[in-house]
Amino acid sequence: MSLSVQKLKKFLVLFNLLGNLAFATVAFDKDLFIKTVRSSIDQGIQTLLPGGYETLEINTNLEGFSSHGKRVQVVRGKDGRIHRFFIKIFHENTCLDDRKAAIAAIQKVSALWGYPKVFWHDQDYRLFITEFLEAPHATPKDFKNSAFLKEFIKNLKASHEELFDLKISASTFLDRTKKRLQELIQVSPELDLQLKKAKEFLETFPTESNAIVHGDIQANNILKANDHGILIDWTSQHWGDVFDDLGSLAEQLKFNKHQEKELLITYFGTASKKHFEKLHAHRQLNRLHFGLYFLREGLKKVKAQKAKLKPGMCGLSTHPFVQKGRKMLEGFLE
Which residues pair with 130 in a beta bridge? Predict the structure, then answer.
């Protein structure tokens, strides 16, 4: 084979590779995405209600997302019965195995929590439909009730045990926090030096993987029904430390010392000094994780509005996300 032919072959391989890359990075077609998702949702509901249905109400944030979202759809079947469905659409970057694992996790733990039951998912596992429970979110006040707190922790521990053999490759809470730090610096490079303490905290944070954890425990993901706490949205689960979930719960629901002790005793049967230290470290990690998120999103909004910030003083912005982020990052920002 001549050299010129070899070069031509290499060129064609490179050309095809670049072509595929260009196709993969083409601008996201939001209208096409929404149209495709709506078609899949219709297919799912038609499967559940083969006699046909009429949509009465749609409560959705689907259009507010670039590539994923959720919606509540209220429909009436041909028999006159009203059905409320919750539809969850995975992020486009979530790999197939992790989408399958998320749906499997929900199916495994639904019996423990009494909700939700997965009714249907599309063949690509891009979205799924569950029953919709009309219930308020739990509040810090609810977790001051000892019985409520203990039952929730017991169900959380049982969920960790139930999911132990689930195969999943999703990044850990620590890795996602490190990614958020880098994303924030990309948005505002001037914060690089100010976030030195945050970098050191993350680089020296001890890692341990002993369970598949929920990965996103916050008040918005806990419902209160019949005086019971129900943990929903098992779509961020990953291999990690049980303290990822325990620290998130304690931080997000503003646990005091007494509640922390009840949490530890209920989960481990004891509350040693080491347990408290680890819980507090993971509360810090959770605070850093969400502080980085709010600061990043706030600064993105500020920059989009072409607001001018004084050098090194992003906190002077009056955007509520920036203020909330900086408050959560107290002790991490210099």
Answer: 86, 118
Number of residues written out for the chain: 334
| Max Cα-Cα span within the chain | 80
Candidates 319, 260, 326; CA nearest to 293 is 326
The structural domains of the chain, with segments of one domain joined by +, span: 30-131, 142-328
Cα distance from N-terminal residue to C-terminal residue, the chain? 63
Closest alpha carbon to 114 in 221, 231, 196, 204: 231
Contact 174, 285 (CB under 8 A): yes
Residues 279/247, Cβ–Cβ less than 8 Å: yes
The three-class DSSP label of residue 170 is coil
| Degrees to nearest 5, angle at CA 110 with 245 and 67 | 70
Give me 113's structure tokens: 């929590």
Query: Which of 263, 285, 297, 296 is closest to 331 using CA atoms?
Result: 285
For 2-36, what is each residue's pLDDT tens digit? 444 444 344 334 434 334 433 344 455 667 777 88
**Structure letter (DSSP) for residue 222:** E
Q: What's the pLDDT tens digit per position in 80-119?
A: 999 999 998 888 788 898 899 999 999 999 989 988 889 9
Does the domain spanning 142-328 belong to CATH 3.90.1200.10? yes
For residues 280 and 260, what is the distance between their CA atoms, to the nearest angstrom?
9
Class of domain 30-131: alpha beta
Asked if omega into 189 is within 30° of 0 (cis), the reply is: no
SS3 318: coil
Residues 151 and 228: beta-carbon distance below 8 Å: yes
Cα separation, 39 vs 34, whole angstroms:
9
- DSSP E strand boundaries for the chain: 53-60, 69-77, 82-89, 118-121, 127-131, 211-213, 222-225, 228-231, 238-240
